[in-house]
Amino acid sequence: MTNVTPDHSNTSGSQDLPPRVASFLASYEMGPGVVTAEQGALHPDLAPTILRMQVLDTPFTFGTIDSFLPDELYQAILREWPESSAFNPVAKFVDGRPDAYFGTRKERILENWAAGDQLDSDTWGTVRLALRHPDFVRALFTRFAETIETNLAALDLDVLRTSSFKLYANVDAGVSEALGAHVDALPKLLTIVVYLDLTGPVSDSSPDRWGTALYAMKPGEIQPLSFTANADHIVAHQIRFRPNRAFVMPNDSQALHGVPGGEDGVQRRTLMCGYWLSKQTSRD
Predict the structure, then answer these.
(1) For the residues of 137-174, what is the DSSP string, one character each?
(2) DSSP state of 12
(3) Residue ranges of the chain whose pLDDT lies below 50
(4) For 174-213, b where at least 16 C-beta lie within 10 A, e where not — what string?
(5) How many structural domains is the chain composed of?
(6) Residue 8: which of 133, 137, 142 has the closest Cα?
(7) What pLDDT shows up at residue 103?
(8) Neighbours of 162 (CB within 10 A)
(9) Does 16 fall in a domain?
(10) Where are the alpha helices (H) located in the chain, listed in sequence order?
(11) Helix (H, G, I), strand (E, B) or coil at 22
(12) Does residue 45 fall inside a structural domain?
């Protein structure tokens, strides 16, 4: 059943929030969420998109937002996409163990806020500011507060004390599986994937193969970052690929998902950002 998102235009923080969510937002708004008045005047306001987000609660809680980015910004992203040589296999970065990853995805970091690492250009700066803006993030975390609070309650908040933000450009392509079924690392509290485009010999089945497959699982059945083939699971819900559609996922220990892909010559481009808690105590 689809839940129509209520009006969250009030982003002042006056709405009561669960304590751990409120604490994260307070930390976030002193870190990645710091936006100067000049920067704020330049970024597109994404908070109103949450008013038209469609939310489902099975097999876990998630949302989708169509026409997520302003068209001018969406087109600029496609024009300024990094060169293929700038991308690296994700397999290199999962706990330093290539065997921990199942898939062919390549990525380019656009911003790792905690490390001060970012790709500079007007377009990428606009994207970062829009996705990091405290009003947008507060509205998102308010909408999914119950799910996020449950996740936070299971984390060691004495160790994970620092809020952070990461933004990636991703490329999925080829006949092999794009992204194996997995549960994200739980300190990544919320993820947004923006579907950009599919190119090549796209078929009628491509929107399903290159969207996101969601799976049901029992509590504790699969550990975070334990990748398996999508074919090993029965799809409980399929999010179809649509250009400029955002898939929004508050993290959950049962949020099992993946991208089958696997069409020769077809390439998928996406943006992915995550709102994190980390062990890092200062920005390098």
Answers:
(1) HHHHHHHTHHHHHHHHHTS-TTT--EEEEEEEEEEEEE
(2) S
(3) 1-14, 284
(4) eeebbbbbbbbebbbbbbbbbbbbbeeebeeebbbbbbbb
(5) 1
(6) 142
(7) 81
(8) 17
(9) no
(10) 19-28, 37-42, 71-79, 122-132, 134-143, 145-153, 206-209
(11) helix
(12) no
